[in-house]
Write a structure and sequence with these properties.
Distance between the termini: 34 Å
Number of strands: 3
Order of helices and strands: HEHHEHEH
Radius of gyration: 17 Å
Number of helices: 5
Length: about 160
């Protein structure tokens, strides 16, 4: 969950207005591509990381609870928070091989695969969730994602635009 929030914060801090080299980016779609092996092996700590997801930069202080501290639940909560303004792609590396389907936490009800499906903007046919295997060519997946972004009303902005 924290990775999604940090990505959104980076987009908000540097994604609007002008790029460091002076190009305008005011109308560009915010996009996060979340690549993981799907293994939910780190649980968030308390303190600065509130409720398993760090929304503090946005002035939001979610309640501390076991649900939000489970890695899969925190990922879904964070993605649901950013998806209204950000296109989220998720790639589960190795999921097609049946690996990395570890425990999402006691009582979670999620698997790493269902977590990544729920984190993605949409997971139906042609959606933004990709399960891959060890033999998957990730370059093909990234090409598919780039094509999808481009096809969503021409949201890729060429380097030559001002």
């Amino acid at each position: 969950g924290n990775a999604i929030i940090e990505a959104k914060q980076a987009l908000d801090d540097h994604g609007n207005g002008r790029t460091p080299d002076g190009r305008s980016r005011a109308n560009a779609q915010d996009v996060i591509i979340f690549l993981t092996d799907g293994a939910p092996n780190v649980q968030a700590s308390s303190g600065y990381v509130q409720g398993g997801i760090n929304l503090e930069p946005y002035g939001v202080y979610p309640y501390q609870s076991a649900t939000r501290n489970r890695p899969c639940d925190a990922g879904v909560a964070a993605a649901n928070w950013v998806k209204p303004t950000t296109l989220v792609y998720t790639i589960g590396f190795g999921l097609l091989d049946g690996g990395n389907q570890g425990n999402c936490g006691n009582g979670s009800g999620l698997t790493p695969e269902t977590t990544l499906q729920q984190m993605a903007t949409n997971s139906g046919p042609g959606g933004t969730f990709y399960a891959t295997g060890s033999g998957t060519d990730l370059a093909v997946v990234f090409d598919q994602i780039a094509t999808d972004i481009r096809d969503r009303s021409g949201q890729l902005i060429p380097d030559t635009s001002s």
